[in-house]
Design brief:
With 181 residues, this protein is of the alpha/beta class. It has a single domain (2-173), classed as Rossmann fold, CATH 3.40.50. Helix content is 33%, strand content 20%. It has four helices and eight strands; from the N terminus they run βαβαββαβαβββ. The strands form two sheets. A six-stranded parallel beta sheet has the order 3-2-1-4-5-6, sandwiched between helices. Strands 7-8 form a two-stranded antiparallel sheet. Helix 3 packs parallel to helix 4 (141-154). The longest helix has 24 residues, at 81-104. The termini are far apart. The relative contact order is 0.15.
């Protein structure tokens, strides 16, 4: 399988790229720093200089079976208005730009699956309430961001691309995420 991964140098991305390689998949990282990503991950990488402003290069997606979109500013920091804007833009705008490139590709060259990272923050603070996908979104900042982010990803549905949204909570890893803090 040919898979393009955005956010490949992040905590989840590194683990995913490693597993895909172990499985024998052909992985391409889509990164702002392609040479560095390629060296550290051991896979080819394509440059995506400004993911919030520009569409990714079509050659990074053309002919691939799937795209896994993990790109986004870390939430593990103090949130002020500027950070909130970056949290939103690094998710919503990059997803919009990614889908725009998918739209520009001919049907036969377009990946068939987009796996788009999302967050359990969609549900808002609910305490110990049991939650599943049928629970409505919350009404706080993060819930609004996630709603907007997932809508951008789901726009690929109209292109015949299967969209899979994964909602993770706190990421725990010896190599990063919340445990590192």
């Amino acid at each position: 399988m040919r898979v393009t991964v955005t956010g490949a140098t992040g905590t989840i991305g590194r683990a995913l790229v490693g597993r895909l390689r172990e499985r024998g998949d052909e992985v391409t990282a889509l990164s702002r720093h392609a040479a560095r990503a390629s060296t550290s991950l051991g896979v080819p990488a394509c440059e995506w200089n400004d993911p919030k402003a520009d569409q990714p290069p079509a050659e990074a997606l053309r002919g691939h079976d799937a795209v896994v979109h993990l790109l986004g500013e870390t939430i593990a920091q103090r949130w002020n208005d500027e950070v909130k804007r970056e949290l939103r833009d690094s998710r919503v705008l990059t997803t919009r730009n990614l889908v725009a490139t998918l739209r520009a590709l001919p049907d036969a060259e377009r990946p068939r699956v987009l796996v788009s990272q999302s967050a359990t923050g969609l549900y808002g603070p609910r305490g110990d309430e049991r939650l599943d996908e049928s629970v409505p979104a919350g009404d706080d900042f993060l819930a609004g961001l996630v709603t907007e982010w997932e809508a951008e990803a789901r726009a690929a549905d109209e292109l015949g691309v299967r969209v899979v949204v994964t909602r993770t909570g706190v990421v725990l890893s010896e190599s990063g995420g919340a445990l590192e803090k």
